[in-house]
Fold Redox-sensing transcriptional repressor Rex.
Amino acid sequence: MSQQRHGSTPGEADGVPAFPDLPEATIARLPEYLRALHHLAETGAETVSSEGLAAAAGVNSAKLRKDLSHLGSYGTRGVGYDVALLVDQIEYILGLDKNRAVCLVGVGNLGHALAGYAGFASRGFRVVALFDADPKKVGEQINGLTVQHTDDLERIAAEESIAIGVIATPPGTAQAVADALVAAGVTSILNFAPGVLSVPSNVDVRKVDLAIELQILSFHEHRKASLTALPGGRSAPPASGDQEAVGS
Amino acid sequence: MSQQRHGSTPGEADGVPAFPDLPEATIARLPEYLRALHHLAETGAETVSSEGLAAAAGVNSAKLRKDLSHLGSYGTRGVGYDVALLVDQIEYILGLDKNRAVCLVGVGNLGHALAGYAGFASRGFRVVALFDADPKKVGEQINGLTVQHTDDLERIAAEESIAIGVIATPPGTAQAVADALVAAGVTSILNFAPGVLSVPSNVDVRKVDLAIELQILSFHEHRKASLTALPGGRSAPPASGDQEAVGS
DNA sequence: AGGTGTGAATACGTTCACAGCG
DNA sequence: CGCTGTGAACGTATTCACACCT
């Protein structure tokens, strides 16, 4: 209600493109909507209802409608959302039209896999540099890129105007890598190393820890086991489902 | 206040071990506390204050104290928390003393890296089986395990009483793999494939999508860029930091 | 009708601030 | 006196239910 810039074409960012501050929870779901929309577009759908898109994205329709309403979106009452238009809107909001340069630090087990991960390129990301501290790895060719030494990280990251740095090093070196990235002007970091990174407040850090995910699942296993073992308990109470049946 | 089972030794699960239902947000942070505690234990610390542990885990102390209070935890006022005791408590709650069997489906780029990921074994998880649908990969040895065909997944997963299944296949086959896991009695799934899995409500699914993380960072890059471009805006407003300086 | 957009109601999570214990 | 544990206040996210548009 505060600012509805209906007439602004998304791609055209002349001055200030009316950037709404979306709730974090909404932002985290937009990529999922986008994936679902791309899938729908491939199957030839022109429009989707909130119900349909919500099912494809694994959320309920009320949440989806509220999320989309935040970005002042176009839907047609009685019809639904225009798939192509919504794709453009979300890609614009997420800044995926910018084809951002990504560098990857740490070409071990995991880093090697990330370097070859197709999902990065298929969204608007270009992996443009690989780094490792191990002299034996420097010079190695991975996916058309040559691994460079981390000593050169700061210089090269600045030269290539890297937008996002991905850290896949052992925990001990992660902070030093983060410092180098920050010094090179990188303001977004995706961290796969366990542990806390300390960075200036204008730098965004997202963390992915595979072991943590397993531990959370382990907790739920433990909980489920102790429920079924309950003396007076029913054998399998229908837990409040997090991700319910969606009927593909 | 409702149930404080102070006298119950964690490891001893004779009957019903007073399982509190912790908030999801708390559960998600427990592994982080655990990692910080292990680190502290290595440096020889016997006790920590909420302030100290919070800093090591990257949260503020009020949050940490509330989280720990939920598991009816032992802290000594005026002193802090006993590191060793808290480690035991959290490991018990998370069910990490059960040494759960994990299987990994999809030994491609990412799956290969996961199979060799040290972080799994170092917490209480044993990767006991690897599967792939590609006949060329079946028979391959990775980290001491032989890759088996996904046709045998259901049988083997049941035999080995797998607790957690990790899906690292292409999106197209993820649902079929999930179905097989569920049929084998697996009730926890960690999914690296993009897309929504539909499973019975008693099965927990956690999803990790590397491309989504980058897209979220991209949004924030976009937002930061549009802020600094603001006509009347200051050049770098101190955004409400998500992960602030922690002073290592 | 059919389906979006949205106030109002509810649930959940975080932060404050301090009582009370060691 | 220091630090935990916790009610109360606040803020954020989800869900409901329906007015309103096509």
Remarks:
- Confidence is low (pLDDT under 50) at residues 1-16, 232-248 of chain A.
- The radius of gyration of chain A is 22 Å.
- Residues 24-42 of chain A form the longest helix (19 residues).
